[in-house]
Each structure stands twice: as structure tokens, then as C-alpha cells.
Amino acid sequence: MSLLDVVLFLPLLGFLALLILPAGVSRSAALGISLVIFVLSLGLIGTVTAAPDAYGFEGNTPWINTPEIHYHIGLDGLGLWLVILSTLLTPIAILVSWKYIEQRVQLFYAFLLLLEFGVIGVFVSLDLFLFYVFWEVSLVPMYFLIGIWGHDRRIYAAVKFFLYTMAGSVLMLAAIIFLYTQAGTFDYVDILNQLRSGRIVLSAQAEMLLFLAFFLSFAIKVPLFPLHTWLPDAHVEAPTAGSIMLASVMLKMGTYGLVRFCLPLFPGAAHRAAGWIVGLAIVGIIYGALVAMVQPNMKKLVAYSSVSHLGFVVLGIFSFTQAGLDGAVYQMLNHGISTGALFMLVGFMYERRHSLEIAAYGGVATPAPHLAIVFLITTLASIGLPMLNNFVGEYLVLQGAAQVSMASAAAAAVGVILSACYMLWLYQRAFYGRASESLAHHMPDLSKREWIAVVPLLILMLWMGIYTQTFLPAISARNASILQEVNRSATAGVPSPSGVSPEVANAR
Amino acid sequence: MLQLWLIPVLPLVGFLLNGLLGRRLSKPVVNVIACGSVLLSFLWVLKSLNALGVFSGGLEEAYKEHYFTWIQSGMLNISVDFAVDRLTAVMLMIVTGIGFLIHVYATGYMAHEGGYYRFFAYLNLFMFFMLVLVLGANFLLLFIGWEGVGLCSYLLIGFYFLEKFATDAANKAFIVNRIGDFGFSLAVFLVVIHFGTLDFTAVFEKVNAMPVESAAGWMTAISLLLLVGATGKSAQIPLYVWLPDAMAGPTPVSALIHAATMVTAGVYMVARSAPIFLHSAHALDIVAIVGLATAFFAATIGLAQTDIKKVYAYSTVSQLGYMFVGLGVGAFSAGIFHVMTHAFFKALLFLGAGSVIHACSGEQDMRFMGGLRKYTPITMYTLAAATLAIAGFPGLSGAASKDLILEAAYEHAPWMYWVGVVTAGMTAFYVGRAFCMTFFGEYRGKPAAKAHGHGHDDHAHGHGTPHESPASMWIPLVVLAVLSLAGHRFFPIPAFLEPIFPLHEGEPEHWLEYVATAFGLGGLALAYLFYVVSPGLPDSIASTFRGPYRLIYNKYFVDELYDSAVITPTIEGSRALLWRVVDARGIDGLVNGVGTTARGVGAVLRRMQSGSIRSYAAWVVLGSIAIVAYIGFRGGVL
Q: Looking at the structure, do residues B274 and B294 belong to the same domain, yes or no?
């Protein structure tokens, strides 16, 4: 049993334990367990960063005999930091819910741990069926987090979230089964080898259909424009912890899937579809930003900003350049940190004033100066100020995109201007100005617990902005080999009419 | 290793100390931390420059220190490196030297303000970023400083954050600068694509190895995109609109950030990128034309402003225009020379204005000043020095650098020279006007006046008559006055920058200088005539030329134009079309339609609407199990 097995299954054990333990100790127990998981997960870093291109802590044992489904897991430079992000944000989400969740406390924390189990599983699965199971497992607790502990329209939001995601994953399941019929295995590494060596040959049409089946499922999760409308509703209705986990970790399942599966398995189709996808990503960047600009609701604003930010990630992935892909993966982490922090802070404000409308605030900086400063730093991180984390990711993505097409980089960079507009206007309306009497009375500054929840994220914003060497080398090394994989189609003679030929992408 | 990193990090430590602990510290301690950290930084600059031989004719080549790798992705490697060459040396001296004086001044000026420690924390943070900007040895490091000073500018413009006009101005500054940065970042992408690196030395070596004639279109593109960045930060047409509004910040901020240092970052950046610009004659021409147009245009607006800080703000825009003219006509060292002399006299003008505002208890409208020569003699004499310097009085610092620019402009294209001297005449007129309106005549303010409605600095403390400022304020004024009068003699920048920017051969024609001087003195004389000798004249002229007067008084309605042409359509379009129609009715309508249909058709799904969470749970679990079971049972058949 490897450390990765432990990190993966402890959340599940925690989930079961919480169901048995008395409700009174649920949150402490959940916090304790999640902290243990976090600390243990740090032990994964050394091994994986030493050999980021291989699957560290690999485990492969049969799970179901017919059809042959293996419990095959492993961790490389692509999954490593996403796992750490998940294990870090789970205790933070628990801490944030400490006072806010008053009903069905036991179940709430149990579901948070089940969610952690699901998302870690997604990031470490090397068997397509196993991956699918975890994908679905993560869906269930999030569905309940929104549906039970959400705001007024929670049922609508939860069902919408569920239907959207289900629609996508059904397609993915069909594609997985089709691949199984071809390869005789669900094993990702095995299938990839067969595709690479030509033992399975997919017609261009079949490859494209398979690619699209996977892609749609992931694109809904990301969410890529125009598949995004479930996100604002889900965020607005979700409790704070749900929003944090959803934005920080679950959206990354989609972008992770694109990099892990769509690109290496179906490189030809990926290249052929890249033009369209990049187009949608750019539309999403600008569209998300423009719609964010006019939102009167803080959570909706942040949700639409996520559509914009995730557009950058997709843009980077489908640039098929080292810089673009590195930036995209880095940006997955960055978005997790800074948007997670934004949802947390909005949640703190909601707990004080019971409103998400920006108009209900104004002048918060006077009664709550610390909250104002923390929100400002997070805002600056979110709009990509250098020395904070998002800048590095955005820069690399745009640099990569520019190497393929200057026009697409220029169009996407407009999103950087717009991000300053919507975030600074939000900040001005919520924090500056004179506080009304009632606001001043109901806006205590950050409590000690709230500080503890937010400080790790603040530290990471600075750390990831200034000293990228801690995180980026492992990502970059892994991406280099993924890119090689993606560009193998060039030698296989698959035409790439999208105009993004891999030689150009790499040579420039 | 000279430990250059200490130069920016010292003020950063000041920022951290005051920022984290300032609330609990007494004002003197805050002062010592804030001013002390900048003073130490200044001393470290002197020590480093001395070690590099700057004061004994050394430092012909750049000196560079490497600290760590910032970003590494494939071939692309971006390091945290600081470098000093003679250009950086000049900027370091200006930033830390003037910066220190303004910090000292601010301890007096801000003495009665709330948020005292916050103010100095921001000011120190600004010093950090500005020093990173000039020390950074590659484009992206420069960009850290570039965006960082923009952040501090945002924070300090919005320092009085209870007031909407202040935070509006702060947002405007940040967002307009972002538009400029859009250009800058595209330039950075192109540099990487074509040179594979962002390191200044490496890029410029490759550029210099290319023959000038072979200048490709992309060289022009890089240059023009860099220029877009510069027009944002250095307030040139069309992005100058944020700078006049930025005067909503406390006056020391206007002096330090919005006159002496930050706004010259664009000039520094273009001068730093000179090898690239020199490969594109078109780009250089456009730099000169943008600068000239800005200089002229802003000067005309300056003629009619009544807020003393607004006058100096438009003057700053105009003077920055001169610097760009210098760069554009190839006289890079003259442009940098003007950066320095302008830092002396414009910082002094603003600090003097602050002293005047202080004296008048927060009043900023010159129509309610007047006769202050009786009350504030030191302020008057020092402001006189600055006024004469900017007006181009012969032998003073302003004339020295401006004449160099104008001479180079004449060589490039005589018409540019003529526009330049007319602008110089207008400049002399409006600074003369400001001086006369504040110091001559009788005091027109109301006794015991609280700040007038639009007294931007919340700076009233209810004195009856105007009064001279404390020593912490007038000593910096005196130092700056000396520098305005003779600073160009202590620091002959063009000769110093020779290794980087070769000087022009040949003797310039003397009449050029005489004409420029005549315009300057003429402008001053006219101002004296209008505002001291016959004070009724301005009003009658304004009513005679009502149309043009209204136009310049309202700043050509450019803000209104931007508002109605860009901002309102964007916001209203996003709200009415994108959000309400495309998102809500279009996409979501479709999705909900599908959802409704599905629910209508499927009896199973209809039961999901029962609203009971328990049944949803059951469905999800059952569904998953069903799928697993299906596959399990079908087994090998698949």
C-alpha cells in the first residue's frame, strides 16, 4: 500500500467515520482528518518532483474481472499539484463552514470528505473506467452540498448542475466503452501505447467522435462557453464551502481531463478541432468578463469571472506550445487559489450581512479594514498583478497563444483589461465610500478562524507569483512529454486544417 | 556582488513594518521607518554607484546581478536580475533622491491626516516598485515594477477612499493604464517570439547585429506596442485622461508619482528600448508626433484651468510630451535630461502648490487665493525658482534640457521646433498665471474658510489667515529650488549618457535658443500683464473668444467623448444584450427548454421533481450502480 493509496482512501474512511461518529464531533473530526490527509499528501511531493514524467506511487491491481477493470493509479507532474490543491482546500472549506452550517452538520462534513475522495481519485486514476467512477463519485456530494445547504433556488441549481454534468459524462462513458471494444482494456497507459504503436488505428472520423465525446464532457465541467450557464446558478446557490470546492477543484477536473485524455489519446482530432476550441475559449474570456462586469450579485460576478479565467486555461492547452500548456496547468492552480479565496471572502461577507448583492455593501473598508486588505490582495491576484500567482499563468498562456497566432493572443489579452474593470468596480462599490449605520454595525473584522482559513491562500498567491520554481518544473517536465505525444499525429500524416500545425507551434 | 537588491528591498521593509505594525506605532516612529528606509536606499545607491565608478568616469558597460529564476518554461527563461548602467544610474538618483525629499515633506503635509501610517506604507511600496522598474534587467521584470507603481498610484489616488471622486479617479488610472499595458504585453510576446528571450542585453545585442535598413515590420510593431504602453503610464495622447483626475490624491503623491517619477517610466522604457526604436524610423516619428501633439494640446488646456493642481497636472502631461519629442527625434539623452530637470521643478511646483493649499486650509481654486507673498515668503521664492525654470528662463535647469530637445527637433523637422516653442510660450504663460494668481494681488479666500466643495485634499484645519508651512515642508522646497536653478550644472546628463546615447556632432544654431527664450519670457510677461497689471483682461478675452475658451476650459470634452463612445456602450451592451438576452434567454433558455422537455417526456425524470433530496440521492446512486452493473453483466460481450 503506497502513500498515494492512503491519501486517496483516507477521505473515504473519513466519510464513513463521520457517518458513525456522533454529530457533535463531526466538524472537529472532519478538520482533523482532512489536515492529516493534507500533511500526508505533502509527502507525495518529493518523489513526484524527482521524476515528474513517470507515474509515481503507481499501483495496479484488478478490481472487477469481467470486464477487466483495474484499480490503476499513479501520480505525475500533471496531477501532483492538483492533488495537493484538493487536500489543502478541503480543510479550508471545513474551517469556512465552521459556524455557517447548522443543519445536518454530520452529513455536510461527510459529503465534503466524500468530495475530496472523488476529486483525488479523478486526478490519480490511470484506468479509464476507474476515472469515470471517480468522476461520478465527485458529482454526488457536490449535488447534495448545493441541494441541501444551498440558498433559495438550490433545487433548481442542483438539478441543472446534475443534468448538465450527466449529459456530458454519458457521452464520455460511451466513448470509454467504445475504446474498450477496440483495445480490450480500460487501462489508460495500455490504450495510449496501442494507439501510439498503431495497434489500434482509428479512422479520422472515429477519432473525432471519440475526441468530441470526451471533450464535451470536460468542456461542460470547465465550463467552456457556451456550456457555462449552470455555473453561475450553482455558485450563487451553493454554500460557501461548496463554491470553494466547485471553483477551486471541480472545474479543474475538466481542464485536467483535456490535458490528460483529450490531447494524448486523440492528437489528430485535437489539432483539427483546435481552431474552433480556441475561438470558443477567446469568446468565453471576453464574454465572461463583460457579463461579470454588469452583475449586481457578487457570487455571480465571481462565477462569470471564472468563465473568463478558465477560458485562458483552455486557450493555453489548445495552443499546443510549451509555454501555453505550462501556463494553462499553472493557471488551474492559480485559479483554485485566488477564486477559492474570493468565494471564501464573499462568504464571510454574506455571513455578516446575509446578502450577496453588491448594493447591500459599500464602505466595508471602514468597519472591516483587514477584510478589505485581504480582499484587495485577492482581487489583485485575480486580475493578474505581477508578483502574484495569476500573472505567471496568464503570461505563459498568452505567450504560448501568441506563438501560434498573435491575433488570438491580442483578443484574449483584452480579457486582462476587462478583469481590472469588473474587479475594481466591485471593490469600489463594496469597500470604498461611507459605510451606512447598519452596515457598520454588522461588519466585524476578520475573526481568528477566518484569518487562519485565508492566510494559507494569501501566502500561496505570493509564493506562486514570486518563486515559481517550487511548482513549475514538475509541471513543465510532464507537459513536455505530453506535447510530444500530441504532436506525434504530425508524423502520422493526419491533416490539420485548423491552421495550427504542430511544427509551427513548436518551431516558433 | 554589490547587493543591488537592497536598493528596492529597503523601502519594501519600510512598507512591511508600517503596513503591518503602523497602526500601533506613533507618528515619529512611522516617520523614521518611512523616511529612513528611503534614505538608506538612497545611500545604498550612492555606495553602489561609487563602487561602480560612476563618480569617477566609470560604468561604461552595464553591471548585472543574477538572483534566481523566476519563470522557466521550455526554452523561455526569465530571471530575476538587476542591472545598472548609466541610464539606470540617473533614474536611481532621481527616484531615491527626490523620493526621499518628498517623504520628508509628506511628514509635515500629512501630519493632520487620518490613515497616516497607511499613506507612508503605500509610499514606501511605491519606492520598491519604482526601483524594481529601473533596476530590472529584462522586460518582464520591468513590467513588475511598471504594474506595481500603477497599483500604488491606484492606492494613493484613492487614498481618501470615502470620497467617490477619489476612488473613481483611482479606478480610471488603473484601467486606462491597463489599456496601455495591453500594448506593452503584446510587445513582450513579440520580443520572445523573435528573440527567444526578454533579457535586455541579449535582445539588444541581437537587435544591434541587424542592419538598420533591414528593419522588418515587426520591429515597428514592437516599437509601437511599447509606445502604447508608454502613452498609458506617461499620460500621452490618447491615454492621458487619467493623470489630471489623479490629482485627487494627496499632493505629495502628485509630486512624487504623478510628476517626478512614475509618469516618466514610459520615457525611461522607450529610452531603454532605444536599440529597437532606432531600427524603425516610422516608430520614432510617431513617438515624436505623439509627444508633440500631447505637449501642445495639454498646454492649451492648462491655459484655462483654475484648480492649481490641475494646472500643474496638464503641465506635466505637456512636459512629458516634450520628453517624447526628444526621444522621437533621436535625442534620447536630452529626453532623459528633461526627465531629471522636470523632476526637480515639477516636484517643486507640486510641493509648493501643496504648501499653498496647506496655507489656504485646503483651498485649491486659485480664484480664492492671491496675495500669499505676505504670508508664505519661502514658498513664494521657491515656487518662483520652479516657475522660472519651467518657463525656460535662460541659465536655469528647465531651459538647459528643453533647448536641447528643441534643437534636436529643429534638426529633425523645423515645424516641430516651431510647435515646440509656441508650446513653451503657453507653458510660461500658464505657470506665470498660476504664480501671479496665488502670490500677487490681495488674498481672496474667505477667512476661517473650510475647504471649498471641491478641495480635494481633506486638508482643512480651520485657520483664519494663510500661514507658512513647517520646516519639514519648506526644507525640501529649498533643496528642490536649488536643484531647479542649478541642478543641470551638477548633473550634466547628456555628457554622462554618452556611452549609451552618442551625442550629436556639430554646433547647434544659436538663434534657436534665443527664440525659445523669447517665447518663454514673453509668456511670463503676458501672464504678469493679465493677472497683475490689468486683472480685467482675462475675463474680457474669455468672453470675446467664448467658443474656444469653453472648449479648453472643458478639456475638449475628451472624457465625455470616451464615456459615450466606449464606456457606456460596453456596459449597456453587456447588460442588455449579453447578459439579459444571450445568456439568460438564449443559452439558458435553450438549456431549460431541453430540461423541461425531458422532464415532460420522461416519467422517471418527473419523479425527480418531487423535491425530496432523499429521492435524488437514490436516483444518483441507482443510476451509477445500474451503469456499473450493466457493464459487469455484459462482461466480455463488449
A: no
Q: What is the DSSP letter of B502?
A: P
Q: Which of A158, A177, A508 sits opposite B638 (nearest CB)?
A: A177
The last residue of a domain, from among B505, B530, B553? B553
pTM: 0.91
Q: Do B73 and A140 touch (CB under 8 A)?
A: no
How many C-beta atoms surround the C-beta of residue A39 within 10 A? 12
**Closest chain A residue to B620 measured between Cα atoms?**
A140
What amino acid occupies position B513? Answer: E
- Which residues does chain B have with pLDDT short of 50? 448-463, 601-610, 613, 632, 635-638
Residues in B closer than 8 angstroms to A180, CB to CB, are 638
pLDDT at B555: 83
Measured in angstroms, the CA of B416 and the nearest CA of chain A are apart by 34
Cα–Cα dist B621/A114, whole Å: 14
Decide: A158 and A208 in contact? Cβ < 8 Å.
no
pLDDT digits (tens, 9 = 90+) for B472-529: 888 999 999 999 999 889 998 888 998 888 877 667 788 888 999 999 999 999 988 8
The CA distances from residue B567 to A293, B26, B165, B171, B573, in Å, are: 12, 44, 17, 13, 10
Residue from A65, A220, A229 to probe the interface with B (highest B Cβ count within 10 Å)? A229
Q: Quick one: how far is CA A76 from the chain centroid?
A: 17
- Report how far apart, in Å, the C-alpha atoms of B88 and of each of B130, B134, B207, B446 are: 12, 6, 20, 48
pLDDT of the residue at B458: 43
Residues B372 and B478 reside in one and the same domain: yes
B261 and B118 co-located in one domain: yes
Residues of chain B found within 8 Å of residue A392, distances taken between Cβ atoms? 71
Q: Return the C-alpha cell found at B463.
A: 485657520
pLDDT at position A501 over 80: no
Same domain for B499 and B625, yes or no, is no
d(CA B227, CA B230): 5
Shortest Cα distance, chain B CAs vs residue A373, angstroms = 11
**What's the domain range around B26?**
1-281
Structural domain that includes position A364: 3-507
Provide the pairing of β-strand A69-75 with A56-64.
antiparallel
In the numeric block, the cell 483539427 is attached to A272
Backbone angles phi, psi at B82, to 5 degrees: -110, 145
Q: Return the sign of the alpha-carbon dihedral for residues B551, B553, B559, B560.
A: negative
Provide CB contacts within 8 A for B619, sequence distance 6+. B608
Contact in structure between B191 and A400 (CB atoms under 8 Å): no
The total domain count for chain A is 1
* Interchain CB distance below 8 Å, B574 and A293: yes
Per-residue pLDDT band for A243 (boundaries 50, 70, 90) equals very high
- State whether B202 and B237 are in the same domain: yes
For residues B307 and B237, membership in a common domain is answered with no
Distance from the Cα of A67 to chain B's closest Cα (Å) equals 5
Q: What is the ipTM of this complex?
A: 0.91
Question: What would the pLDDT profile of B586-634 be if each residue is shown by its tens digit?
Answer: 777 777 766 565 555 444 444 444 455 455 555 655 665 565 555 545 5
By Cβ distance, the residue of B151, B616, B636 closest to A67 is: B636
Indicate whether B329 and B393 sit together in one domain. Answer: yes
Using the beta-carbon criterion (under 8 Å), do A380 and B588 form an inter-chain contact? no
**CA distances to A63, A259, A335, A475, B527 from A328, in Å:** 34, 9, 10, 10, 60
Domains in chain B, number = 3
First to last CA, chain A: 45
Of B235, B256, B281, the position where a domain reaches its end is B281
CB-neighbour burial class of residue A20 (10 A; exposed 0-12, middle 13-18, buried 19+): exposed
Q: Assess whether B307 and B208 both reside in one domain.
A: no
Nearest 10 degrees: CA dihedral of B168, B174, B180, B183? -130
